């Protein structure tokens, strides 16, 4: 694909689909990182994550903070404006939005107020009056923050534009995104000079939509996906213009390498661009993308335009040679970078013979004499006249590769483009009575090279060193900048060249370093913010030019550097400018006499340097492999790294991005306090060992505790997962099930190992968190000390042995005695025995095992069936029989385990926060008494009940008859005890078909006999409380008191695998019988000899 740059102005990363959840069901793991990687590869430069409510805006900000190219909005969607009044204090809710917006601005992430507006297509979510009231209120947010507006308009153009007009003075500009209106609606929006229109797949459905889009001026348009919605479908009118395609698969067959069918993604903004180009008849898609990109920057990223202006001020951009008469010179200076504007009376284009060429004093960027309305008579734009080097024609000959730009008076940062007569008239209106105007002719490709692709934040201005890739000055001119940057001094050809190209240029195929680094050092008077910035620039400069250097002097206030080659005169001296913190190059000899390029390229490629190079890519692709790092560095910079160097560089880059793994343990006291401070009622505690090394950490958020006690079944799943982090460890978790059988994490802990002591400690902390008189049921393993720990801590609980762990143990114990097929039959019979609700079913299944192996039968009978078989178990498991129910939670752990411990815990907190919010929002739309899946189950049982016969009796016991394959069956239902002889009612919490037949017969409602834990009300109670963000998890702010007396060091790392194997082998060398007793003798001896030979260089004859 072409190397174009796009900004997707609307992505709903807070939507569950990007977490793998579709219609409340988990289909795959969260894949935002994969989605982002596809977007960056497609040419997406930045993404704005939209916020539609206070909580969603918080989440959007948290997501935006994960990548430097992500930004977000803060606001309330029109369909959710009821949240202002439902909060109980609309003004407090507004202030919370304002505080969040200011926080995001300070972090450089919030770029707009929104998504707000009016949506009359969905008044069932929020009445029109409430929408209008809080749409107008949110203009106050824009006014207070000076941010543009990100707007939503559906079937409400008249009211929308009226409110806009009433508040026109409160906002600087904005975009009405996802536009689907009529031509009349379009024109109303365009009547606001500061309003842009956002186009996505929903804007391109019908031929009528394409006609509307066709007449939107390019300079007032932006593009977006609004993903995961608004994709361009095969039925849309715009599909005929789509050229870029990606493979896709259904969510049920999820593949990281493919898009999810039916889910829009930011990479598909490329398709929107192609459809816009197609319907407008534009063949140059690169130029189109550049225009739309600039539109977006003008509204949301104005600092980019500042960076472009800085580039013009800081370094000479190659411009069209223009003939301008200089005072004191006898000839035209075609190298001068200024524009001559021809003035005169009303004449035709062809009549140019007596036009006056304005004289411009050397070194002054502007018109002389002063230019004012009274003096300048506006001619058609085509009458601008450029003289010199045969350019004796109007501007139409050069319009394809150059542009004319000017600065606003008193603003040397914002460049405005002149592209038509109206722009020229606007320039004169802006100038008013100003004495000068700065005008430039810019070659577009040169300007594009001169401005960095790196996104910048609103909170910190992009510096020249960040935003500009300098272009080498002409060989016969030296260009300097004065301190004010208000004047460009152009010396005559007696100056000295600044460029110091090495004798042998870097290999052309490594063009990235050559283009972007060869002018990191430009010469005398170049300034840097710090010595670190100077050293980094020098480092890159030396790599690009292929020479080695050494520090002759390297102290806190000055640095002297010389070429390492013997006798080479190249050297540079930099020191701190007095009374400032700036570093300035004072002296430089740019000449090399050495064979610089012959120096080994990798001599300066330290791990830290490589880490700084790969940092951004590692942020976008956390699974960036060392092998790929080495290949990329070699391809792009010509430097060969081995695997170990690449791996260590990755570790350094990861630490730069995520913080120190070691320091994170020392922050645990602060982190625990912040959890309890930001989430009152939460429990966060940790223990250390006698040597102050980390032992264990327990976390349970108040929202989890409250949700479990108020809405969840008294059922908890206990399990553990290994953490493959730098310092190893295990994560223990207590997971509950919500009414929809979704996971609900109650508590979790990080411990050094899975032991009985750690499980006992975890369960005691859990008991203090969820103290309840209700008898709890635990589904958990019976090994690793859990059996005894549960009995000690929760004395009266029900412990259901995890069926998977039990079956695995049975399979291991049978291995070697039976064939694979025989073991498979016995394991299947074991599961059948466990699930059978009645004693006779259990007995049939165990007898089948006995027929194969009496020993296996004895094993099953002695394995305490009262802890795992439905026929005997006394607790309420709701048909859940394995402890790995919380697999989704453990997948979150696997995504986060490579982060420092505080970041890992915070990532889990963020996932839980997202889940709680999403499920709360989803459940607000449910209209049934039971949750959707339970409602569906009940309806299926109700349908089956219609064929059953109920025999009426006195009291609460009924006989129910029906037909099945085996013949007639009879079940007994006791409605007072909520019991049926089939045991289905007791096992699931929902009435079985036999009970429902009784209820219909006696005129009662089935809903009255459903477990309260399966209702919509219980589901909403589960997710009623929110988990709040924990700020500054890795950087305590200075005024916060932190108990520095508490020092926590990382746990002792496990010895490497080969060291453990070596220790084992040496033990075996002393006593081989230890191993022989467990294996076949010959196999054991052979294995022992192999270990000795490989690990401790023994020959078998020496053993």
TrEMBL record:
It comes from the Eukaryota. Keywords: Hydrolase, Metal-binding, Nuclease, Zinc, Zinc-finger. InterPro entries: DNase_TatD-rel_CS (IPR018228), Metal_Hydrolase (IPR032466), MULE_transposase_dom (IPR018289), TatD-like (IPR001130), TatD-type_Hydrolase (IPR050891), Transposase_MuDR (IPR004332), Znf_PMZ (IPR006564), Znf_SWIM (IPR007527). Residues 971-1003 form the SWIM-type domain. Signal peptide: none annotated. It holds the Pfam family TatD_DNase. Belongs to the metallo-dependent hydrolases superfamily. TatD-type hydrolase family. This is SWIM-type domain-containing protein.
């Amino acid at each position: 694909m072409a190397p174009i740059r796009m900004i997707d102005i609307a992505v709903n990363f807070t939507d569950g689909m990007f977490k793998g959840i579709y219609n409340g069901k988990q289909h795959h793991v969260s894949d935002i990182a994969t989605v982002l990687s596809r977007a960056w590869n497609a040419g997406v430069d930045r993404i704005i994550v939209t916020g539609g409510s206070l909580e969603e805006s918080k989440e959007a900000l948290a997501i935006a903070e994960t990548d430097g190219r992500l930004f977000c909005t803060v606001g309330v969607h029109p369909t959710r404006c009821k949240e202002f009044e439902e909060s109980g204090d609309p003004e407090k809710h507004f202030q919370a939005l304002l505080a969040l917006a200011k926080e995001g601005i300070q972090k450089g992430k919030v770029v707009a107020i929104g998504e707000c507006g009016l949506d009359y297509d969905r008044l069932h979510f929020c009445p029109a009056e409430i929408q209008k009231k809080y749409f107008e209120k949110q203009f106050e947010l824009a006014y207070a923050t000076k941010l543009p507006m990100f707007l939503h308009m559906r079937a409400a153009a008249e009211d929308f534009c009226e409110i806009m007009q009433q508040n026109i003075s409160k906002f600087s500009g904005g975009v009405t995104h996802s536009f689907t209106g009529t031509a009349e609606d379009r024109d109303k929006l365009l009547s606001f000079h500061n309003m842009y229109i956002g186009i996505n797949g929903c804007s391109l459905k019908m031929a009528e939509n394409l006609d509307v889009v066709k007449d939107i001026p390019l300079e007032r348009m932006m593009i977006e996906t609004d993903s995961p919605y608004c994709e361009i479908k095969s039925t849309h009118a715009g599909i005929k213009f789509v050229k870029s395609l990606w493979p896709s698969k259904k969510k049920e067959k999820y593949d990281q390498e493919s898009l999810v069918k039916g889910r829009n993604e930011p990479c598909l903004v490329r398709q929107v661009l192609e459809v816009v180009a197609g319907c407008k008849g534009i063949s140059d898609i690169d130029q189109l993308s550049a225009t739309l990109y600039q539109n977006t920057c003008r509204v949301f990223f104005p600092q980019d335009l500042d960076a472009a202006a800085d580039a013009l001020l800081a370094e000479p951009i190659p411009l069209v040679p223009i003939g301008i008469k200089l005072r004191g010179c006898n000839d035209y200076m075609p190298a001068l970078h200024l524009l001559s504007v021809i003035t005169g009376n009303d004449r035709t284009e062809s009549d140019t013979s007596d036009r006056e060429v304005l004289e411009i004093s050397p070194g002054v960027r502007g018109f002389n004499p002063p230019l004012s309305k009274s003096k300048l008579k506006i001619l058609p734009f085509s009458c601008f006249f450029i003289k010199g080097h045969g350019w004796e024609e109007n501007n139409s000959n050069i319009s394809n590769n150059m542009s004319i730009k000017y600065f606003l008076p008193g603003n040397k940062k914002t460049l405005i483009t002149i592209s038509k007569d109206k722009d020229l008239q606007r320039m004169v209106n802006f100038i008013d009575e100003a004495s000068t105007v700065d005008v430039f002719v810019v070659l577009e490709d040169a300007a594009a090279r001169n401005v960095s692709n790196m996104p910048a934040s609103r909170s910190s201005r992009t510096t020249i060193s960040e935003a500009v890739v300098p272009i080498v000055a002409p060989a016969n001119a030296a260009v300097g900048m004065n301190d004010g940057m208000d004047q460009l001094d152009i010396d005559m050809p007696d100056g000295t060249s600044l460029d110091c190209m090495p004798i042998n240029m870097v290999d052309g195929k490594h063009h990235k370093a050559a283009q972007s680094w060869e002018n990191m050092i430009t010469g005398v008077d170049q300034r840097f913010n710090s010595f670190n910035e100077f050293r980094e620039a020098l480092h890159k400069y030396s790599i690009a030019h292929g020479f080695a250097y050494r520090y002759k002097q390297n102290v806190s206030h000055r640095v002297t550097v010389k070429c390492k080659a013997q006798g080479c005169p190249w050297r540079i001296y930099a020191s701190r400018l007095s009374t400032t913190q700036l570093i300035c190059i004072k002296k430089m000899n740019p000449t090399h006499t050495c064979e610089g390029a012959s120096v080994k390229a990798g001599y300066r490629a330290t791990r830290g340097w490589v880490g700084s190079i790969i940092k951004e890519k590692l942020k976008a692709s956390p699974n960036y492999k060392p092998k790929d790092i080495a290949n990329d560095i070699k391809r792009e910079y010509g430097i060969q790294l081995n695997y170990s160097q690449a791996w260590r560089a990755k570790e350094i880059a990861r630490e730069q991005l995520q913080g120190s793994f070691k320091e994170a343990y020392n922050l645990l006291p602060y982190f625990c306090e912040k959890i309890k401070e930001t989430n009152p009622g939460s429990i966060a505690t940790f223990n250390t060992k006698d040597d102050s090394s980390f032992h264990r950490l327990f976390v349970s958020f108040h929202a989890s505790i409250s949700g479990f006690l108020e809405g969840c079944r008294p059922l908890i799943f206990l399990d553990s997962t290994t953490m493959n982090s730098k310092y190893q460890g295990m994560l223990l978790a207590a997971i509950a099930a919500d009414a929809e059988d979704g996971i609900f994490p109650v508590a979790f802990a990080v411990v050094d190992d899975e032991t009985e002591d750690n499980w006992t400690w975890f369960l005691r902390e859990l008991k203090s968190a969820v103290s309840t008189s209700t008898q709890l049921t635990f589904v958990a393993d019976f090994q690793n000390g859990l059996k005894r720990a549960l009995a000690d801590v929760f004395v009266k609980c029900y412990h259901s042995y995890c069926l998977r762990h039990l079956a695995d143990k049975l399979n291991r114990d049978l291995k070697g005695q039976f064939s694979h097929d025989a073991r498979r039959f016995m394991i299947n019979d074991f599961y059948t025995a466990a699930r059978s609700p009645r004693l006779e079913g259990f007995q049939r299944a165990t007898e089948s095992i006995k027929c194969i192996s009496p020993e296996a039968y004895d094993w099953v009978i002695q394995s305490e069936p009262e802890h795992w078989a439905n026929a005997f178990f006394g607790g309420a498991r709701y048909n859940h029989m394995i402890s790995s129910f919380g697999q989704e939670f453990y997948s979150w752990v696997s995504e986060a385990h490579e982060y420092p411990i505080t970041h890992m815990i915070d990532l889990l907190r963020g996932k839980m926060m997202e889940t709680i919010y999403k499920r709360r929002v989803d459940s607000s739309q449910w209209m049934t008494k039971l949750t959707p899946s339970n409602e569906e189950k009940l309806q299926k049982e109700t349908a089956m009940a219609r064929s059953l016969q109920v025999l009426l009796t006195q009291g609460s016991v009924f006989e129910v008859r029906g037909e099945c394959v085996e013949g007639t069956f009879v079940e007994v239902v006791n409605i007072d005890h909520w019991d049926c002889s089939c045991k289905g009612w007791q096992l699931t919490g929902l009435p079985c078909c036999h009970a429902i037949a009784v209820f219909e017969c006696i005129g009662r409602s089935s809903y009255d006999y459903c477990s309260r834990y399966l209702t919509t009300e219980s589901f909403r109670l589960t997710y009623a409380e929110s988990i709040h963000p924990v700020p500054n998890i890795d950087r305590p702010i200075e005024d916060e008191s932190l108990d520095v007396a508490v020092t926590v060091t990382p746990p002792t790392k496990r010895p490497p695998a080969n060291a453990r194997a070596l220790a084992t082998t040496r033990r075996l060398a002393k006593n081989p019988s230890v191993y022989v007793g467990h294996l076949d003798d010959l196999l054991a001896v052979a294995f022992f000899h192999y270990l000795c030979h490989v690990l401790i260089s023994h020959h078998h004859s020496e053993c």
